[in-house]
Amino acid sequence: MGSGLSIYTAVQSFAMKCFPFHYGEKKEEQKSMQSISVLSNSSTYPVGDIGKSGSELNSQGASDISTDSLRGTSFPSLSQRPSNLRVFTVSELKSATKNFSRSVMIGEGGFGCVYKGLIKSVEEPSRRIEIAVKQLGRRGVQGHKEWVTEVNVLGIVEHPNLVKLVGYCADNDERGIQRLLIYEYMPNRSVEHHLSKRTETPLPWSRRLKIAQDAARGLTYLHEEMDFQIIFRDFKSSNILLDGEWNAKLSDFGLARLGPSEGLTHVSTAVVGTLGYAAPEYIQTGRLTSKSDVWGYGVFLYELITGRRPIDKNRPKGEQKLLQWIRPHLSDGKKFLQILDPRLERRDMFKSSHKLAAIANRCLVKNPKNRPKMSEVLEMINRIVESSATESPQLSLTDLASTEASQDSEVKHKKRIMHLKLAENNWFLKIWRRKQVRTS
């Protein structure tokens, strides 16, 4: 790992010089949370009528509502962990991104713009590596807190299913303070992109199962496989990126929080996240646990199954909220077929999608205590992936077309035989009637 100076200390030092706000013990005045009603007749699918517009819940200017969560913002228990992050200057990143040219811009979101760039490899200076550079927009204190959190989290965790943070930049230039994050480049974009109608070639079902498995591995690592727990808090398909080999990796940890301290059951925070993914108990109370991520994962599984977004205002009124729309289709096999992504061959995915829906239902139980841990979810997903791999190989489109053509030919042949038999019968009847007339 890198230098003896912790990344947390360096970033916090920069933050305190440039941004006069409190990270520590001072308790901020609790802001009133807009009331959110969660309406449900079922303990498994409570779907909220959320009184906010836009894609995020209170994500800008949100104040954490307890001293514990304020300390959690700074990840103090990580402060002595060394980091191997590279520290970049603005001039280096300008050179890497053609002066932040729009021609290399690959994304734009609430955080800011993301650019594709090239930098020299530390291990092999003659080799250039592709990077993604996220430039923080001018969002004030909340945006900077998310930037600091991202550096603190990804600076000390490492896993094949988490996007790797290469380094950061906290520098000044003629435009003022520059805060940037530098990641490994993920050429196949986000899962959300590939599930959308804009994509000409939909994600194959086998790849969706692998993505579900990769995402479960990433969450299991954050929740259970370190000596501290991290709650992602903004799990969604747009935060799951795909590398060149189509491996899925969790990204965007700006809203992440440390799990509850020993002896506590939850962390109290302001309600932030994305509509359609947030767990109902978190929306109602601000009490955050790892089971909030489990709920979001359950929603995501139904995204993979249906190819639909959790909330889509462009659909008919009864279909705008994914969890409400699917509910009547889950008790009957024929009805369940109607929610499967129509862009996929349904008979190839019916069996495993039914099993995946059963896992999603367990993640979407109303009482968070009754939801499984992510390690348990991962075990169930692994079994589905393994059984799908050992089942008979799926027909290719060419094979499917030839099979259907063969079946059509067989049906036509049977129809011809039936017509011949009917013709023979009609001929026999005509001869028999003539004989009857003559003998009478």
Q: Quick summary of this structure?
A:
With 440 residues, this protein is an alpha+beta fold.
Q: How would you characterize this protein structure?
A:
It is built from 13 helices and 14 strands. With 440 residues, it is α+β, with helices and mostly antiparallel strands. The chain has two domains: 7-28 and 63-184, Phosphorylase Kinase, domain 1 (2-Layer Sandwich), CATH 3.30.200; 191-390, Transferase(Phosphotransferase), domain 1, CATH 1.10.510. The strands form five sheets. The chain has a six-stranded mixed sheet with strand order 3-7-8-6-5-4, with helices on both faces. It is globular, with a radius of gyration of 28 Å. It starts with 6 loop residues before the first helix and ends with a helix. 38% of the residues are buried.
